[in-house]
Amino acid sequence: MSYQSELYQQVILDHNKKPRNFRPLENPTHSCDGHNPLCGDEITIYLKLNKDMMVEEISFSGSGCAISKASASLMTTHVKGKSVEEVKIMFDEFHRMIRGEFDPDKNKHHLGRLTIFIGVREFPSRTKCASLAWHTLICALDRKGEAYTE
Ligand code: ZN
Fold it and tell me: How far does the centroid of ligand 1 lie from the alpha carbon of residue 127, in Å?
């Protein structure tokens, strides 16, 4: 196993066992339900934006496979404190990275540790598990109240 995929497995295991920000949020300003029928992942993202359009709080609830849960967990730790604009840039880079269209080793990026999800490229059927939390986050920001299905 390569170093990269070993790191990927480790982070997935860790965040699956101890998901960060795994609870519903009281009085969120934005939320959305996401569903990935291919795998059965269900997730709800809760957000509190402040008046400067920064993510003040973010959390998630739901049930799903290890990848979807770990991706949601890691996402919440990375977007907290970011502006909506930055979140959208991160989403775009993340989405293109797991589809093999963006190489964080060769380009400037805003992904930080999220780059470990490049490992999901080795399991193409699981990319939707990794991106569900992100699509659901964007859904919460853009279309308040509607559900997202992969
Ligand atoms: Zn899944």
Answer: 8
Name the residue range of residue 93's domain: 3-145
Structure tokens of 22? Answer: 């795994």
Distance 60 CA to ligand 1 centre (A): 15
Decide: 74 and 113 in contact? Cβ < 8 Å: yes
Tokens of 26: 């009281």
What pTM value is reported for the model? Answer: 0.93
Assigned domain for 150 exists: no
CA of 44 to the centre of ligand 1 (A): 14
Query: What CATH number did the domain enclosing 65 receive?
Result: 3.90.1010.10
Per-residue pLDDT of 72-127, as tens digits, reads 999 999 999 999 999 999 999 999 999 999 999 999 999 999 999 998 988 888 99
CB of 78 closer than 8 Å to CB of 27:
no
Collapse the DSSP code of 12 into the 3-class scheme (helix H, G, I; strand E, B; otherwise coil) and give the result.
helix
Distance CA 25, CA 146 (A): 17
